[in-house]
Amino acid sequence: MSIISGRFLLFFILFFLLWHFLPGKSRPALLLAGSLLFYLSAGPFAFSLLLCVILWSYLGGHLLAKKKSRGTYLLFFAGLLLLLLALKIRNMATGAPLPVGASFYILTAAGYLTAVYRQKIEYEKGFLYYAPFVSFFPSLLSGPIGQADVLLPQLHRAVGTEAVPEEDLLYRGFYRFLWGMFIKLFVANRLAPAVGYIFDAAGYYSGLYHLFAAFLFSVQLYADFSAYSDMAIGLAMMLHIRLPENFRNPFLSVSLKELWTRWHISLNRWLADNLYIPLGGNRLGETRTVCNLLIVFFFSGLWHGEGVHFIVWGLYNALLMLIGMWTEPFRAAIRKKCGLDTKAWYRWVRRGIVFFLFSMAFIFFRADSVAGGLFMTRGILSIRPQELIGFYPQQLFDKSNASFLFSMGMIGVFFAVQYLRSREDLLFQKIRNTPRAAQILFSAVLVILLVFAACADLTTLNTQFIYSKF
User: Fold this and answer.
1) Active-site residue among 210, 240, 264, 304?
2) Separation of alpha carbons 25 and 323, rounded Å
3) Catalytic status, residue 304
4) Helix, strand, coil percentages in the chain from 3-state DSSP, rounded to 5
5) Which range marks the domain in which residue 55 is found?
6) How far is the C-alpha of 32 from the C-alpha of 56, rounded, in Å?
7) Are residues 173 and 160 in the same domain?
């Protein structure tokens, strides 16, 4: 059940009413029942898999609480990762897709075991609290990946009889959900066909179009994935629960190292807590640091997909990170000597370089094969300056100049609002300070606009999110 479908909206309205009007002591069972009912639409195999992951990790946490044993931890932690690997091998062998959300809730459960083993949190005794933590329906399909030390205490507070709804949190959640739906419909969905035309038939296009497609895909992926995160965070807010942020303006980063602290934050935190730091991080010398980075990015590539091109994508990013690490002292010395760090224009140059390198790496993420990614990369490296003259790719947007300009305008709106998100509290407060009638009118206009966008031919209603496939 997609969270952008009419069926889900009806489901959530009913759940929301029950959540806020039933006694607090009934909320644990309601949340578990709602999450399992939501996931039941994924099919019997996927539903059974979710139950097995919940029971396996709950048992593992129980045994670790009784006796802290490295062997017990590795058995249950590795068991979850091997299950994920088996699902991916099954996909490669038979073509059967991964159960939707499996990659996310398996990492959620594995992260819980790590937190219990390291005694960052206490073992969750209540099954009616633990099961909804793993299967929490707003974030079940595409994250953010649940963090036990963040989410479990909130579940106890939210479902307790002492929980008092915060009106501002309800409004914030509502607007956050609408914003996520807006960028899904008006940005991600509009860019998807243009990206597909070039990636699916790269041989018919020049290197300049390959570069344009790489840039468009970076924006499409960011819009699509952050849209789901915003919608999930908004839904949780309306239930008085705060999920961790998954994006913090990654394309404002001035280095790739900074970008990976702003992009898919919940996954990168999981990789740091469960792989990079346990392997030694950067504490055991340069050689070990290099090996640890390669292992982490290899795992990240494998987590994203079964094809070799995903692994190439992961190792490509590791190589870029290592080059950045090795050259940083030299580059820092030049910046200091020339006084560049204080120049605003130079920060934007660095952001442009980071975006270019990020987009080049993600060619392999989007391509169907390594060969396809290399073909597009060669095309980009062979671009001649004269090709820029008269480049105007309106044919990718229904051969319509208006459609092309509208899509570019929506990208501008998307980035402008994302840039202002650092002042979200101030912006929200301005909305809340307007008369109640104006707030209702503003909300109604947004809802009507989204309904018309979903139904109109202008916007192709694609309810699937890119990361729901991983």
Assistant:
1) 304
2) 54
3) yes
4) 75, 0, 25
5) 6-164
6) 17
7) no
